[in-house]
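Exercise 7. Given the components listed, write out the predicted structure of the assembled complex. Treat all entries as one system.
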Amino acid sequence: MIILDYKDRRPIYEQVIGKFQDLIACDVLKEDSQLPSVRNLAMDLSINPNTIQRAYSELERRGFIYSIKGKGSFVVENSNMKAAKQKRIYDDLQKLTKEAKVMGVTKKELLETIDEIYDERGDER
Amino acid sequence: MIILDYKDRRPIYEQVIGKFQDLIACDVLKEDSQLPSVRNLAMDLSINPNTIQRAYSELERRGFIYSIKGKGSFVVENSNMKAAKQKRIYDDLQKLTKEAKVMGVTKKELLETIDEIYDERGDER
Amino acid sequence: MIILDYKDRRPIYEQVIGKFQDLIACDVLKEDSQLPSVRNLAMDLSINPNTIQRAYSELERRGFIYSIKGKGSFVVENSNMKAAKQKRIYDDLQKLTKEAKVMGVTKKELLETIDEIYDERGDER
Amino acid sequence: MIILDYKDRRPIYEQVIGKFQDLIACDVLKEDSQLPSVRNLAMDLSINPNTIQRAYSELERRGFIYSIKGKGSFVVENSNMKAAKQKRIYDDLQKLTKEAKVMGVTKKELLETIDEIYDERGDER
DNA sequence: GTGGTCTAGACCACG
DNA sequence: GTGGTCTAGACCACC
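Answer.
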C-alpha cells in the first residue's frame, strides 16, 4: 500500500505522512476505515514502529486520522462517532484557549473567529 | 531551571513544554536567548535527549522558539512571537471550529469551553 | 560583501559558495585578488569559521580559488582557471586509476566507461 | 584496537581509514561484524567524533563498510566487497569524465593518464 | 492486541 | 558540539 524511497532526501516519517494524506484525499481510504496498526505497518515496511507512530501522530494532529488507545487508528469521517470526535474537539479547544489566554489573545478575538465560521452562509447552529 | 514532577500524570515532554512556555511568557527567557542544548538539558534532568527533542520540536511548532541545526535553539523575538503565535492560534481555532461545526457541536458549547478557561480565578482578560 | 539568508533552506556554506562563484563570474572579484581570511569573514558574518573553511575548500576543489598556507586564499586567474580545473581532473583521474588497477579493474573496462560518456550523441571530441 | 601516531604527517582520519582497511583486509574484522560506534571510538582515541565520522564516511565510499542510521556501521561481506568497490570506481570515473568533457579535456588526454598508471613497471593488466 | 511514552544509543547534516 | 532522524526495545493504559 505504501512504498518508501530511501533515495528521497525527505525523512521516512514524512514520506509516510504524505502517502496517507494522498490515500485519504483520493478516497482510497474511506472514512472510518482502520489504518494498519503501528506495529504491523512497521513490519511490512521493515522500519521501526516509532517511525510509524510519529507519522500517525502527525496525521492525527493534522486532523486526517484519529487514534483510540487500545483500538487502532482510523480515517476521520464526517458522519458518525460524534462522541469521540467531539471529545477531541473539546480537548483541543481547551488546550488552544489556554495558549490564547497566555498569549494575550482576548476572548473577544476568539469569539469573532468562531462567529466567522458559524455564521457562514447565515446558518447559525 | 526546570523541575520535573514524576507524580504528575502528564508526560514529561508536556511538562517541559509547559515550563518553557511559562519562562518565555514571564520574560525570564529573553528574546533570542539560547535555550540549553538538547543533550545538556537531558543530562541535567536525567532524562533521555529524545524527550527534550520532542518538547523543543513542539515549542518550535507552537512558535515559541526556533532551532538552527548545528547552532542551537533560541527564543523567538517578542515582536515576531506574538504575531507568529497568534496567527497559529487563529489558524488552529479556525480549523477546529470548522470541524466542530461539521460535527454538530453547537456554538454555545464551544463558548462554554472558552469561558471555563478565561474565567479561571476570576481574571477575565 | 556577502549577505546570508537564514530563511533560505540551503545550508549556509552553500550560500557562501554560490555568492563567491557569482562575484568571481561577474568579475567583481578580480583575478588574483585576495579573499577575506577565513576568520575575518566568519566574524563579519557571525558564523563559525569551519563553515567558511568548508566553503573555501569546495571553491578550491571546483577550481575557482587557490589557497596558500599561511598567506591566504586568492581568485584563480581567468586564463589559468581552465588549466587549474583540468589539473584537478588529471589528479583525480590518476588517483582513481591507481585504485582501479589495485582492485583488478582492467584498463579495457575503464576505457569503455570513458567511451560511453564521450561518445554520447555521437560527438567525439 | 587502533593506535594513532601523532608524529605521523598524515591526518588522523587517514590513519584511521588505513588501520581499518588493514583490519578488514587481514580479516581481523570479519564480514558483517559491527564497527565501534562513532562516539565510542572517538572517546577511546580521545579525538573528535567528527574525525571518526569522516573516516567512516570515506570507508563507506570506498566500499569497505556500510552504515545503517540508528543501527551502526558494518563490514561489507567479502563477496560483495569487490563488486561494491568496482561500482564506486565506475561511478567516480563517470562523474569525472563528464566534468572533463565539459572542461574541454580531450579523450586522448584522459587515455594517456590511464596508460601512465597501467603501464608502470611494464606490467599491463 | 493497540496506541502512547520513554530510554539508550546509533548515524547524519551542519556550524 | 548541536539539532534531526532513526532503531531497538521497554513499560504503561486501554479494550
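Discussion: The two ends of chain D are 36 Å apart (CA to CA). Chain D touches chain C through 30 residues (CB under 8 Å).
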